[in-house]
Amino acid sequence: MTAIPHSDVLIVGAGISGISSAFHLQKYAPKASFEILERRDSIGGTWNLFKYPGIRSDSDMYTLGFSFRPWRDAKAIADAPSIMGYLQDAVEDGALDDKIHFQKKVVEAKWSTPDSKWFVTIEDGATGETETRTCKFLHSCAGYYNYDKGYQPDFPGAESFKGPIVHPQFWPEDMDYSGKKVVVIGSGATAVTLVPAMADTAEHVTMLQRSPTYIVARPSEDAFANFMRKILPAGLAYGATRWKNVLLGRYFFWLCRTRPEFVKKRLLDMLPELLPEGYDIEKHLTPRYNPWDQRVCLAPDGDFFTAICNGKADIATDHIEEIQENGIKLKSGEFLEADIIVSATGLDLNFLGNIEVSVDNEAIEPANLLNYKGMMYSGIPNLLVSFGYTNASWTLRCDLTSKYLCRLYNYMERKNLARVMPTPDMSQVEYEPLLDFSSGYVVRKSAELPKQGSIKPWVMYQNYIADIFLTRFSALQDGALKFTK
C-alpha cells in the first residue's frame, strides 16, 4: 500500500500570501517540511487571474511588497506585470519552484484528532483525478473571494444587449474596445482603474454608479523612496519607506475615524483643480459615507480625472431602469449608448477558497466561527489563514501571519505538542461582524462569514502596529489557545 505523502505544513495558494509563508518557513522554521498547492498553472493569485486593462495595485509597493524583499522599481503604484515579475523573482531567489505544485485544487480538508493531522483531498486540474496528502498544519493562502465567479447582479433586459457584457474577473483576451462606446458599471477600485485605461483607445467611457466613491489623486512614484535609494543601501531605503508609508497610512485612517468631517472636506477640496470648471462634484464625487467606511480609491497621477478633463470619460450617477439592445436606460430617463458594458460590480467573498472543512467528521459552518488574532478560527485545530487588511496593504498582515505560523510550529515541536486550537470563553465574548466595512461585497456576505469578538484576542484590529505586538511578542499560552500533546 502506497504511503500518503505528508508535510509539516501544506500551503494552499501560490499568490503573495503563499510565497510569504514559504519564505518565512524556510528562514524561521527550517526543520519544517512544506509544499505549496496551487489550483492554477501559475503563481501570482490575483495578479495572474485578473487581465483587465490597466490592472495595478492601489496600495504602494513598499507595503504591498514583502518585508524580506525590497521593491526596487521607481513606480510605487505598480501594474500587474511588474508585480508578477517581482513575485517570480522572489520564487526563483528562494528556490521555491520545486515546492509549488500547479493545477492542484484543494477540495476538502478533514482534521483527525486521533491522528493529529489533516487529511487533504486534492483534485488534479489536468487529469481530474484526486489524491490525498496529510499535514500537521494547514495554511490557507487562497484569498477571500471566489475564483470561479464574480458578483454579477441580474440587470433587467441584459439578454437583449447586442454587445458583450464583461465582468473584469473574466476579461476576454481578444476584447477589442478601440473606437467603442463603453459603460463601466460600478465605482470601486476596479472601475476607477478601468475607466482611464480604456479611455486611451475607446471612443468614450462612462462610469455608471449608484453612489459616489472617494477618489484621491496621488503620484505614481514615491519621491522619498527614490531619494532614499540614492543615499542608502536597498534594504535600508526600503525599510525606511515602508515604515514611512505604514505610519502615514495609520495616521490617515485614525483621522478618518476621529475627524471624518475634516478629512471629507480636505478630500473634496482637492477635486475642483483636477476637474473641468463647473463639474458637479456634489452629485458625482461626494459619497454619502465617511472616508474609510469603504476603501478610498486611488488615481495614480490623477489619471481618472485627466480622462474626464480631456472628454474621453465621464460619470453618470443614477440607477439602471433596463439594459436595451444598444445601451442602458436610466431611471432618470437618460440613455447611455454602449457597444460594450463592463460589470465592475465586485467580488463574491467566500471562506477558505470554498474548501469543505470538517473536524472529526463534523462539518464546519463558517458563520459560527470566531476569529482569533486575525489568523485562526475557534474550534478548528492547526489551521492558519492569511487574510490582509481592509485599510492597508494585504502583505503587511500576511507577513505577520507567516511569521506567527513559524513561531507556533517551533514552539509545538519543542514542547512535543500535536494540536493547537483557539477556544473562546463564550460567557465573556460577544459576536460582532468580521469586518467593520460597508462595501457591498462585504455586506452581501457578512452573515455567511466568521465573526470577530468583542475582546482580544478575538478582535480584528486592522492595525499593523498593534498586530506586531499581538503576534510577535504576546505569549502563545494566553488562555485562548488550547494545546494538546
UniProtKB/TrEMBL annotation:
Pfam family, one: FMO-like
Family matches, as Gene3D superfamilies: FAD/NAD(P)-binding domain
Alphabetical UniProt keywords: FAD, Flavoprotein, Monooxygenase, NADP, Oxidoreductase
Residue runs in coiled coils: none
SUPFAM superfamilies in the cross-refs: FAD/NAD(P)-binding domain
Cofactor(s), names only, from the UniProt record: FAD
Matching InterPro entries: FAD-binding_MO, FAD/NAD-bd_sf, Flavin_mOase-like
GO molecular-function terms, A-Z: flavin adenine dinucleotide binding; N,N-dimethylaniline monooxygenase activity; NADP binding
Record-stated family: Belongs to the FAD-binding monooxygenase family.
Protein name per the record: NAD(P)/FAD-dependent oxidoreductase
Protein source organism: PS1 clade bacterium
